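Record 1 of the preview.
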Amino acid sequence: MSAKAVTVVALMRAKPGKEADLRQELLALVPITHKEPGCLNYDLHVDPQNPAAFCFHENWTSKQHLDDHLARPHLQAFLAKAGGLLAEPPQILLYEKIG
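->
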């Protein structure tokens, strides 16, 4: 059986006053992650009505590639800083394409 592609929607909200810091940290992840094996897209979005609300839309060729991404040093370094930047834990949603 072949591996199924996986889509991730990761929602994050900055602590008050930390919007620019979180934005900078998240933007720094984009070019590094685009080069990772299995990364089809890794797109960062911000809510135009709420500069504290961010969303990653990601597509990976397999769950294993996503798991590998989550273990990489640049992501682990971000997660170590995230507590000081995020108002709440990120909401991570996983999907499989069906159509």
